[in-house]
Description:
The chain has one domain (about 1-165): HAD superfamily/HAD-like (Rossmann fold), CATH 3.40.50. Helix content is about 35%, strand content about 15%. The protein is built from 6 helices and 6 strands; from the N terminus they run E-H-E-H-E-H-E-H-E-H-E-H. It has a 6-stranded parallel beta sheet with strand order 1-6-5-2-3-4. The protein binds magnesium ion.
Amino acid sequence: MAIFKxxxxxxxxxxxxxxxxxxxxxxxxxxxxxxxxMAYNEKLPSAEVIQFIDRVQRAGIETAICSNTTKKxxxxxxxxxxxxxxxxxxxxxxxxxxxxxxxxxxxxxxxxAILGDQxxxxxxxxxxxxxxxxxxxxxxxxxxxxxxxxxxxEAIVFKxxxxxxxxxxxxxx
Length: 173
Ligand SMILES: [Mg+2]
C-alpha cells in the first residue's frame, strides 16, 4: 500500500508550499488538470490557476501539464498558461510520460513532482515512476463516471493507508 502513499498532501493547489518543494529539491512540477486545477465541466483555467503557475515558475520551478485527457482539452486548458510542455493522453498510472517529462526537461527523478487528485493515476503512477508525489483533494465532488468507479476503491486504499500513518483530511503543513 506504500505505493499509494503521497510524499505531500494538500487540500488544494492553492495551499502548495512552494518553499517546501524547493527544499525537497523539486525543479519541475507536473500538474494534472481534471479536478486538480479545474473541474470536469470547465474548459479554461481560472485567473487563480494562472497566478499559481506563474508563482511556481517565479520561484524557479518549471511547470508542465500531465493529464490523461485528450489533446484538444489539454491544449485548450494550457493555452493561457506559461507551462513548458503539455503531456496529454498520459495513460497514468503508467510511468512513461513522467519519465518522458523528466528526460525532456533534463532532470533526475527526484527533481520531478506530480500534483494530482487521484491515488490510482497520479499518486500510483508517480510512485511507480520514482518521482515526488503530491496529492490534492479534488476541486469538485463531480467526477467522470469512470472516476466514480475508482473512487470506491480509493476509499478502501485510504482506509489501508491509515496503517501507514496517512489520514484522509489531515493535510501536511
Ligand atoms: Mg484528476
